[in-house]
């Protein structure tokens, strides 16, 4: 559905050149649900804007549903829906009229535009709001309308740029219910960007981590967490000396990747915490160390980002948001 080779975009800001996207090679198959995850300014939106033909790449190429984004823009646009970061609905239109107008823009007859509008109102639970003016909708309702607008022409591919940013947890969960249902019913390929680590973790089948314009990891959330971060076992012993002594013994245990001590605590990165913990406790005991407490925590995608870049995604995003 999506194939890119060396996709690159540079901007010139005054005398400064900004390399927003630096040679992205990407392949997304039909029906996949992919999250692009990265801090502010990583190049996620610029990538989406190139793939949707809104921005011309500086170099490299991409094909959407077999069509070149530079040579066959009309066919590309017919193949995709794009829900950008801002709300797309005309504020003074009524909800159903907005969908009718969009359908007409895509060349549907008045009758077919009406049928499609009603289908989408029902699919996105907007039926009760059909006569409401867009400006009176809540943030979550507007986002659902945006998605309906993106789907008017039945595209096989839908791009969502931060679909749930700024929503409360309940509205986010509701939006996701709709996204997942649409996908199940229509088989739509979905590519979205998000800042929400938990969202990428639980909803996407594949997570592509982008930093400074390049892809730095691409896998399922589980595989990224297992391969790049690992679980964290924390053991406490009686003293800092005991912790240092025990660390030298546990370092060679199966599945241990890294051990650090902090006072009487040992922080042990392991491949699979559920398997490693019993072995670590057995070893400690057989060498005469008394473990006073043991804790196992699973990594988050933030740990993955930290492992890859040495920076926390959460902090990077917050810091960069603060300096905008
Ligand atoms: N039109 C533009 N002119 C100049 N620089 C731009 C332009 N659009 C984006 N950039 C710069 O390109 C880089 C990537 O921006 P982009 O919006 O793609 O990041 P992002 O990952 O989508 O960030 P966010 O999560 O904040 O939306 C940033 O440094 C941004 O300031």
From TrEMBL:
InterPro entries: AAA+_ATPase, ABC_transporter-like_ATP-bd, ABC_transporter-like_CS, ABC_transporter_ATP-binding, DrrA1/2-like_C, P-loop_NTPase. It is a peripheral membrane protein. Keywords: Antibiotic resistance, ATP-binding, Nucleotide-binding, Transport. GO terms for molecular function: ATP binding. Its main location: membrane. Residues 2-237 form the ABC transporter domain. Gene3D superfamilies: P-loop containing nucleotide triphosphate hydrolases. It is found in: Cell membrane. Signal peptide: none annotated. This is ATP-binding cassette domain-containing protein. It comes from Rhodococcus sovatensis.
């Amino acid at each position: 559905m999506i194939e890119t080779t060396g996709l690159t975009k540079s901007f010139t800001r005054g005398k400064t050149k900004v390399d927003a996207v630096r040679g992205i090679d990407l392949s997304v198959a039909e029906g996949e649900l992919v999250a692009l995850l990265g801090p502010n300014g990583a190049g996620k939106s610029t990538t989406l804007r190139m793939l949707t033909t809104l921005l011309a790449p500086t170099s490299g190429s991409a094909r959407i549903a077999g069509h070149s984004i530079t040579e066959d823009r009309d066919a590309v646009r017919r193949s995709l829906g794009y829900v950008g970061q801002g709300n797309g609905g005309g504020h003074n239109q009524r909800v159903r009229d907005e969908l009718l107008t969009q359908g007409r823009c895509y060349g549907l007859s008045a009758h077919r535009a009406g049928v499609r509008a009603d289908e989408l109102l029902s699919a996105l639970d907007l039926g009760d709001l059909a006569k409401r003016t867009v400006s009176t909708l809540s943030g979550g309702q507007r986002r659902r309308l945006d998605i309906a607008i993106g789907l008017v022409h039945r595209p096989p591919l839908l791009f969502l740029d931060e679909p749930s940013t700024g929503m409360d947890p309940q509205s986010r969960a509701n939006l996701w219910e709709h996204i997942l249902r649409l996908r199940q019913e229509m088989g739509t390929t979905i590519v979205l960007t998000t800042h929400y680590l938990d969202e990428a973790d639980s909803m996407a089948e594949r997570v592509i981590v982008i930093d400074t314009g390049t892809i730095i990891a691409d896998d399922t959330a589980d595989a990224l967490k297992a391969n790049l971060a690992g679980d964290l076992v924390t053991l406490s012993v009686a003293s800092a000396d005991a912790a240092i002594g025990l660390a030298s013994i546990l370092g060679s245990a199966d599945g241990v990747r890294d051990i650090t001590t902090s006072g009487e605590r040992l922080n042990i990165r392991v491949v699979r915490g559920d398997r490693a913990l019993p072995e670590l406790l057995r070893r400690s005991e057989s060498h005469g160390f008394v473990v006073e407490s043991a804790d196992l925590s699973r990594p988050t995608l933030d740990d993955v980002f930290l492992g890859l870049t040495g920076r926390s995604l959460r902090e990077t995003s917050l810091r960069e948001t603060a300096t905008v």
